[in-house]
């Protein structure tokens, strides 16, 4: 069992998106769905596909810094501000597993880098297309919607 969807959204995803100046309901829903699809909301934080809630690979993490964030020093500084001061220098990829806000910021930057318009927050197939494009090109849209129905819907229903 992973992190409760409503708590992940309330205490990690939403504050991170607000901090980055990127918050909207669609972005929040997409990141929640990505976390559900990639790791079962944290039920498993590491496998061959990558690290943390969003299963981000080390190469993608490095390339994001080198090819996207390096072009915008102000944004890079904002994202870097979420990382642990000393741990990041010694093991930047470990931050993807142990630092939920940093991992969320990196996941959002990977989405933003694609420059794909966001669908409505309740458009699960639209969200699934972005998940597949950004995180899991071999994934099936139904994998995303299934993870949503299994991991997120029950928690959001109980939170209401």
UniProtKB/TrEMBL annotation:
Stated name of the protein: Uncharacterized protein
Domain of life: Bacteria
């Amino acid at each position: 069992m992973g992190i409760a969807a409503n708590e992940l959204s309330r205490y990690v995803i939403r504050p991170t998106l607000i901090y980055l100046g990127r918050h909207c309901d669609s972005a929040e829903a997409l990141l929640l769905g990505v976390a559900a699809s990639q790791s079962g909301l944290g039920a498993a934080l590491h496998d061959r596909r990558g690290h943390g809630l969003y299963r981000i690979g080390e190469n993608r993490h490095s390339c994001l810094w080198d090819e996207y964030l390096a072009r915008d020093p102000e944004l890079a500084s904002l994202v870097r501000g979420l990382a642990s001061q000393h741990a990041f220098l010694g093991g930047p990829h470990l931050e993807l597993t142990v630092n939920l806000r940093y991992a969320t910021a990196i996941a959002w930057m990977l989405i933003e880098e694609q420059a794909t318009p966001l669908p409505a927050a309740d458009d699960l197939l639209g969200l699934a297309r972005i998940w597949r494009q950004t995180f899991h090109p071999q994934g099936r849209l139904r994998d995303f919607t299934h993870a949503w129905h299994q991991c997120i819907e029950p928690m959001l229903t109980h939170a209401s």
